């Protein structure tokens, strides 16, 4: 009964929002097309500020308010005053949103449900500010009958509660900032491509139609930032390994190399993850500096492959080999847009010779990107990405018969198109991946409409294509889906 009630409320909510969106779109006068969105290295298209802050100062020369419009004659003034007084009683700032999302697969997948997502989510964000410190907690409460296992596993993002943030920020010195606890971090220059950003990602959320902000998973870390005249430094320490929320057969089917076919809920991935406190830890470093408008950075990482990078042939469990990463990046103005270059060397510490066919070889990765506004309110961004396998001859000569051979290098091209309309309240976007080496692709179309200051409507899709079932995007072809969402923010 609860499930049927939830589905009914979900459908009614979507229908009401579609009707409201149409009414508002008809009342809003059309504005000239164009672009005003600046390129960014964040993983989601940024929401531009809306509204005007009006600061009024009292003056003795101010004209008198006409009779009938003063605060004593209008009962709403008293109501607003009481609400403000009530809100000020809280010892902290409280914000959040309630959201419903529903999605369906566009193809029949024998190993997964037809529905890709059907969740109701309540996020509460509490923040307390002091002079040189702050405390923040962000918690999501969710229910999704599509994934009907609600036992709580915070590190894996499973269950009816997802603790996104719980941290304390303070500045012991003017040149040092410290943030300790659960937090969401990002660095690097890629647009939804990551080389030196070795913080955990949630690929299941990305592929089933959740908001793009959920691609970034939280870390349990201590972050120290040091600012000096010559150079700035970020140090991030994880006392225990934080893996990606990777594809394991729940919600998303994948190519199973052992079975030689796709699998999903019928054969969920068995894993052997490093999880000893302080023994299986991670360290990330970033040296960065802005020189003449160009952002330069050096990176270092010592930990493990974030998603499974190996296989134990005795138990068939997926493993996480030790990994060190060294890289750099530069980002700045190029011609009439913004360009970036990022490189990284992935050193598989457990198999530097590349002779173990059940473990990922060391790799060299490079990313070139460029973003420019072609017209008013219209932005185009393009990226070219390469993964080059080191010691390929050793890998090839030790590969067991029957195992599909990986390519020596993998090429990937991305294209982002973003169009803003109706005073930047209506956004149409397309982000696409295409690999000429794998002959597969992934498309993310999206339409987002800000109805008012509280209500937002979104619809989009995740469309996969692949010539072969074993390539990265090709393995997800049966998981192509469309979704719709409605959010109320407060």
Keywords:
mainly beta; single chain; 11% helix; 23 strands; three-stranded mixed β-sheet; 490 residues; 18-stranded antiparallel beta barrel; 4 helices; disordered N terminus; Porin
Low-confidence stretches: 1-63, 65-83
**Mean pLDDT across every amino acid position:** 86
- Tally the helices: 4
Q: What CATH architecture label applies? A: Beta Barrel
Distance from first to last alpha carbon: 29 Å
Structural class: mainly beta
Main β sheet profile: 18 strands, antiparallel, barrel
Strand elements, count: 23
CATH class: Mainly Beta
Percent range of helical residues: 10-25%
Shape: globular
Instruction: Give the SSE order as H and E letters.
Output: HHEEEEEHEEEEEEEEEEEEEHEEEEE
Overview of the structural elements:
With 490 residues, the protein is mostly beta strands. The chain has one domain: Porin (Beta Barrel), CATH 2.40.160. It has four helices and 23 strands. The protein has helices at residues 2-27, 75-88, 203-208, 392-397; strands at 93-105, 115-129, 133-143, 161-173, 176-183, 219-227, 232-238, 254-256, 261-263, 271-272, 282-291, 294-304, 310-312, 317-319, 322-334, 337-348, 363-375, 378-389, 409-421, 426-435, 440-450, 455-466, 481-489. The chain has an 18-stranded antiparallel β-barrel. A three-stranded mixed β-sheet has the order 10-14-13, with no helix packed on it. A hairpin with a 4-residue loop joins strand 13 and strand 14. The chain is globular and about 70 Å long. The model is unreliable at 1-63 and 65-83 (pLDDT under 50).
């Amino acid at each position: 009964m609860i499930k049927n009630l939830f589905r009914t409320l979900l459908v009614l909510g979507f229908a009401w929002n579609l009707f409201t969106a149409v009414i508002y779109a008809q009342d809003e006068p059309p504005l000239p097309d164009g672009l005003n969105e600046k390129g960014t290295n964040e993983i989601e298209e940024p929401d531009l500020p809306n509204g005007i802050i009006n600061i009024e100062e009292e003056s003795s020369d101010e004209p008198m308010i006409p009779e009938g419009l003063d605060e004593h004659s209008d009962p709403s003034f008293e109501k607003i005053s009481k609400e403000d007084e009530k809100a000020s009683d809280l010892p902290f700032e409280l914000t959040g949103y309630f959201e419903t999302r529903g999605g369906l697969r566009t193809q029949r997948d024998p190993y997964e449900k037809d529905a890709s997502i059907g969740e109701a989510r309540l996020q509460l964000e509490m923040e307390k500010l002091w002079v040189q410190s702050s405390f923040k907690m962000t918690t999501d409460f969710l229910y999704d009958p599509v994934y009907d296992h609600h036992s709580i596993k915070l590190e894996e993002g499973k269950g009816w509660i997802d603790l996104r943030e719980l941290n304390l920020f303070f500045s012991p010195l003017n040149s040092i900032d410290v943030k300790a606890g659960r937090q969401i971090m990002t660095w690097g220059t890629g647009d939804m491509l990551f080389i030196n950003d070795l913080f955990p990602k949630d690929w299941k959320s990305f592929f089933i139609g959740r908001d793009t902000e959920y691609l970034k998973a939280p870390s349990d870390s201590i972050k120290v930032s040091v600012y000096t005249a010559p150079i700035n430094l970020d140090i991030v320490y994880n006392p225990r390994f934080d893996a990606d929320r990777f594809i394991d057969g729940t919600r998303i089917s994948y190519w199973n190399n052992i079975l030689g076919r796709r699998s999903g809920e019928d054969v969920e991935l068995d894993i052997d993850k490093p999880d000893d406190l302080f023994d299986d830890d991670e360290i990330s470093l970033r040296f960065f500096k802005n020189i003449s408008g160009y952002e330069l950075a050096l990176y270092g990482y010592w930990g493990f492959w974030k998603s499974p990078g190996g296989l134990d042939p005795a138990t068939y469990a997926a493993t996480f080999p030790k990994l060190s990463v060294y890289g750099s990046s530069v980002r700045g103005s190029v011609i009439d847009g913004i360009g970036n270059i990022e490189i990284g060397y992935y050193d598989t510490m457990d198999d530097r010779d590349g002779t173990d066919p059940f473990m990922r070889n060391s790799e060299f990765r490079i990313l070139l990107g460029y973003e420019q506004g072609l017209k008013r309110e219209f932005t185009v961004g393009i990226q070219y990405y390469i993964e080059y396998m080191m010691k390929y001859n050793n890998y090839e000569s030790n590969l067991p018969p029957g195992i599909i051979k990986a390519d020596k290098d993998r090429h990937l091209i991305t294209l982002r198109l973003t169009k803003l309309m109706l005073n930047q309240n209506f956004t149409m976007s397309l982000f696409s991946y295409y690999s000429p080496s794998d002959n597969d692709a992934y498309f993310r179309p999206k339409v987002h409409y800000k109805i008012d200051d509280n209500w937002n409507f979104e619809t989009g899709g995740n469309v996969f294509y692949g010539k072969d079932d074993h390539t990265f995007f090709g393995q997800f072809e049966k998981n192509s889906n469309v979704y719709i969402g409605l959010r109320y923010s407060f």
